[in-house]
Amino acid sequence: MKSFTALLLTLILAISVQAQRPGGPGGGDRPEPSPEQQALIDQIRQIKADIHAALIAASTEYADLAALESPTFEDRRRMAELRHELVPTEAIELAETLRDLTGQLNDLRPERPPRPDRPERPELTEEQLAAIEAHKAAVKAAHDALNDILVAADATGRYAALLAVEEPTRAERQELNELRRQLIEGSDEAQTQIDAIKALNEQFRTDNPDLRPSPRRVARHLRHEVRQDIAEVRDLNDQLNALLAADSVEYAELIAKEDKTPEDRERIGELRAELIAANEDAQAVADQIQDARQEVRQDVRRLRHVRDHVNGPRPGPVDRTDDGDTGGTE
User: Per residue in 157-183, is it b (16+ CB within 10 Å) or e — as a string?
Assistant: First the structure.
């Protein structure tokens, strides 16, 4: 009984202290945003709405949950899970823009401590640039020699054919990499050449310790890879839709509709599952889509890790424009 009384008194005291603060329990009225802040807030809200719309268009389940007038806690949690799954493949560029705008808004808030200045990376000297070019040429020559070894080792000629493709698809890249791995495992000469390439890289790092790629450069490269992978996912989705539309007039009509209702999306999902199960070619494309999406997620995780290394942790509130969510309005 005494412990309960003590707890009750503690709660009463806490409430009274909060009530005495300016602006009530919130700890003070927040100042009106400046015109610059308000412009960023408006942009952030619009980007969130765009992300929300993109996810609705991409997922029948998300669209159904978004249409609920009074979503439960479980509904909201499921929407958050779907956002986490879908944003890397359906709205990554919008999400990147949202993060940048939110960072700009946070930097304008006076209560936020400024981020520490990072030293600028020094310009490369002519000697360093020459060393880089020489290393690139040496590595390219070593890889060309490796490919010659693998072409000679492949009795089917498939490796040479895949190498000759100027703009390979994801499936062709995967086939090339798998065939490359198999050929290297079966060739002592190829393994020796791999060791030579590794030695070239190790020697370059030893001779040029100041020329490691900067995190910003790595981040740019990863962003490029993510965009390429997303484009591949979209191409594969188009291929899959074309296959399924050829098997079903109803599916073709639903896919062609511009303003799809929740019922349309639900029916598309049902037909999609049925048609894929009955079409081996569609199953193969669907598997490629899953693999491609997984690769996008992995690249996005790597990008976030590198980006956090570049920017450092951002203390304080991240976004107060509404509920702090990155997936749009609910």
Answer: eebeebeeeeeeebbeeeebeebbeeb
pLDDT for res 152: 94
* 131 and 148 Cβ atoms separated by less than 8 Å: no
Say what the alpha-carbon torsion angle 233, 235, 237, 242 is, to the nearest 10 degrees: -170
Provide mean pLDDT across the span 298-321. Answer: 58
Residue 306 has pLDDT above 80, yes or no: no
The three-state secondary structure class of 31 is: coil
Token pair in block for residue 322: 């509404």
- List alpha helices for the chain, DSSP H: 2-20, 35-58, 60-66, 73-90, 92-107, 126-153, 158-163, 170-185, 188-207, 215-247, 249-256, 262-277, 280-311
Distance of CA 180 to the CA centre of its chain: 28
The whole-number pLDDT of residue 144 equals: 92
